[in-house]
Amino acid sequence: MITLTVAAVAMTATILMAIGFARRRIVVVTVSGTSMTPTLQPGDKLLVRRCDISVVKVGDIVVLEPPRVPVSPEITVLGPLPARTQWQVKRVAALPGDPIPSSVQEAAGNLRIVPDGTLIVLGDNNASNDSRLNGPYPADRILGLALRKLAEATPLGTRPPTS
Question: The pTM is what?
Fold first, then answer.
C-alpha cells in the first residue's frame, strides 16, 4: 500500500513538473488585428512555442514585439514604451544573410542584406504594420513560433450546432 502511494506521489510530481515546463515554453496568443488576414482572423487563438531566431525559417509565423522607431523622420526621440507589450503576429520573409525583399527596400534604406540579429517580417495583408514600414525587426524581440491555430472551444453548457 505504501509503495502505491509513493508511486502516485512520484507520478503527480512528474506531471506537475511537465505542466510547469510546458507553461514556460508554450503560450496562447489571441490575434487582435487584421494584418494576417486571410490566414488569421481577429479572435483566432495561436499555440506559440517560445524560441529564438535559431529555430525560425522563412515562411514561419512568429509572434514578436515591434521595434521602437522614431516618431517621425524629423524627430529622433523614440516614442514612449507602452505600459504593456504589444505583440505582433507576422510571417517571416527573410533571415540574416538573405537579400532584403523589394517590398521592404525603402524602409531598409541602404541595406541590401538582412543584418545579423534581425529578420524581415510581413503581414499576409498588405495593409500591415511590418518591415515594409519599420525595416528589419530585432531578432531578440521574438516571443515564439506559432505552432498552430487552436480550435474554438464550445462554451460550457452549450452544444455545438448539428446539421
Answer: 0.74
Q: What is the CATH number of domain 27-69+86-150?
A: 2.10.109.10
CA distance 155 to 91: 31
**Region 136-140: what's the mean pLDDT?**
93
* b/e map 32-64, b = 16+ CB within 10 Å: ebebbbeebeeebbbebeeeebeebeeebbbbb
Query: What ranges do the domains of the chain cover?
Result: 27-69+86-150
In sign, the C-alpha dihedral spanning 59, 61, 65, 71 is positive
Tell me which residue has cell 510530481.
Answer: 13
**End-to-end CA, the chain:** 51
Angstrom distance (rounded) from CA 104 to CA 123: 12
How confident is the model over 61-74, as pLDDT tens digits?
999 998 775 444 44
**Segment holding 108, helix H or strand E:** helix 105-108
Q: Which residue has the cell 515554453?
A: 25
Calculate the alpha carbon distances from 4 to 14, 17, 144 in Å.
15, 20, 40
